[in-house]
Amino acid sequence: MFITLEGPEGSGKTSHIPLLVEFLRGEGYAVFSTREPGGTSISEQIRDILHDLKNTEMHPRTETLLYQAARAQIVEQVIQPRLAAGEIVISDRYYDSTIAYQGYGHQQDLEQVRGLVRYATGGLTPDLTILLDLDVEVGLRRKKQNQSEWNRMDDHEVKFYERVRAGYLEMVKAEPQRWVVVNSEQKWDDVQAELKKVILEKLTR
Length: 205
Ligand code: TMP
Prior knowledge:
Number of helices: 8
Radius of gyration: 16 Å
Number of strands: 5
Order of helices and strands: EHEHHEHHEHHEH
CATH architecture: 3-Layer(aba) Sandwich
Largest sheet: 5 strands, parallel
Bound molecules: thymidine-5'-phosphate
Strand content: 5-15%
Number of domains: 1
CATH superfamily: P-loop containing nucleotide triphosphate hydrolases
Helix content: 55-70%
Shape: globular
């Protein structure tokens, strides 16, 4: 079972995943969690280039390709082997982030971006993708307040994130059997409870 969490800035994905992993392990599942971009030594090095605030001249095509390079490595080195060993893999972001940010956000050709994503992943699609959805301004405010890393991808204008969110919602509409939307403007505990419920339902169905 391959589960991915997606969402705009400040949606809280990263804070929810460790507790979900603990919960699922408590239920007896073998679970491995990772994040994108990153999760392998090579992918973390690429992450540093992508997120370095100094790299203001980076072209969207360069950015798109670097995300795919980091992704190809983690798919081959970590995700596929863990899935083959029967583990549940939970990833903090996956290829839908590329469609949302590089496709919708940077307004690049969606078919070309989808082609690159297919190449990078070798066609590996999540079984379940959860969108932690919230108002863009609320998310950016949260992100600024919680003192997590502020990187180059956090430095766009608000309109960029509005396109990203609209892109996510279009993806949900296009593939409703894979996506579940969770409102992340609820209280943190309520979001966590809903995430557990959604994942357990998928695992036990
Ligand atoms: P995060 O670790 O705080 O979620 O930061 C990751 C940033 O990278 C976030 O702004 C989304 C962005 N991103 C893309 O633009 N494309 C991608 O394919 C991925 C995985 C992330």
